[in-house]
Known about the structure:
Elements: H1 5-43, H2 53-56, H3 68-84, H4 92-104, H5 109-118, H6 122-135, H7 140-152, H8 159-173, H9 179-188, H10 192-201
Helix pairs in contact: 1-3, 3-4, 4-5, 5-6, 7-8, 7-9
Amino acid sequence: MKINLLSILSLFFALFLLCSGYLSLQNALITNAIESRLDYFSSNSNPAVRSNDTKLGEPDPNSLTTSAHLLNSFVLFNQWVAYLNQEESTPNHWIALLNTSTHVRPTWPNTYVELSKLSKDQQQASQYQQLAMLFGPYSPSSRLLAIDQTFTYWENSHVSQRLDVSKQLIAITRSWSHRSSLNQMITHSKGKQRICNLLAFNKLKVQACG
């Protein structure tokens, strides 16, 4: 029986869809497992690191496809584990994963937010922040980063910038849907005292400010 070209192409296409579906399902399962742990870390007052968390936070080097979301989740997860284990280092492979994420999804602001947070060079951090605002001016993660950076480097910020982020802080504080992310940002911000003072002046209460 003679097999024509169309049949061969159809077979390859079917195999491609089967492999892609399996890899997508695998990525989704890993992402859901990590996100579940991230929710646990952020919603508990005294979270504990499990024995298998280290394994969960290791990307599979043999994976043929990885989403930008999963790459970012790996970094966020490992940051939490390092924080809970009282480790202050920033491994280079975190930066490498985020850089890969920018290639996979170059216009996703969340990646640039994380790169800005991890950057030890203030100028480079500022460049990442600008990219985050460029690709996601209304994204909660971009706005929280702008608030954090402005209140942290208050003396070096323009008056117009201070006014703008202060308005954003008040608006985002009044939105309960972003309360968890807001509390995390305030807790770890070097400008925490200024942020809490502004919220107290406007009679707004958040858990991070006590």
